[in-house]
Write a structure and sequence with these properties.
This protein is an alpha+beta fold. The chain contains two helices and nine strands, in the order αββββαβββββ. It has helices spanning 6-49, 112-116; strands spanning 53-65, 68-79, 85-96, 102-108, 129-131, 135-144, 154-164, 169-174, 178-179.
Length: 181
């Protein structure tokens, strides 16, 4: 039977320590890779759950009905997130009055304006549009140009503002409106 002396242990101890350190470093490196993958997956899931939407402007038109001027915008809203989302739509009208001062007016979308305009064949959005996850919808927005805008104003631009229930906003600028017949 072979006996192991204290001197023999002193000779192999550094090599055993080195082997244990290498195994521990390999385990730590593997754990780091697993944690990095888990972090990437969690970030992707988190980003997919965040509010994310886009809008496309298909058509912009105006229509004069009696003493009111109606502004129509046909848009597509794409909800790109993995959650349901609600949207509200407004229009920012920027104009220059006869004195040369630039003014801004913000108007809320009202689906009742489509009926009042005499264009019932247009499918309008509700005041609060609700979209399912990964879903798109197309429709008309209708605004009445305010009556207190002075005669002879110079319109600079229309800007559609779509806001979701998380207060994320997307804007689309329009400089020219067709006449809706």
């Amino acid at each position: 039977m072979t006996t192991i002396t204290f001197q023999d242990l002193k000779d192999i101890a550094p090599w055993c320590s080195l082997a244990v350190a290498i195994v521990a470093a390999f385990i730590a490196w593997s754990a780091r890779l697993v944690a990095a993958r888990a972090l990437r997956l969690n970030q992707q899931v988190y980003n997919d759950r965040q509010s994310n939407f886009t809008i496309e402007l298909n058509q912009a038109a105006a229509h004069q009905q009696k003493s009111s001027r109606y502004l129509f915008f046909n848009i597509n809203i794409h909800n790109l997130s993995d959650m349901k989302n609600s949207f509200s739509c407004r229009l920012e009208l920027t104009y220059k009055n006869p004195e040369g001062t630039i003014r801004r007016v913000i108007i809320d979308h009202n689906p009742e304006n489509i009926k009042a305009s005499g264009k019932q064949n247009l499918s309008g959005f509700d005041t609060k549009l609700r979209l399912e996850e990964k879903h798109s919808q197309s429709g008309w927005l209708c605004f009445i140009e305010p009556a207190n805008i002075p005669v002879g104003y110079s319109n600079l631009k229309y800007e559609l503002i779509v806001t979701d229930n998380h207060h994320n906003t997307t804007r689309r600028e329009v400089y020219l409106l067709n006449e809706l017949v």
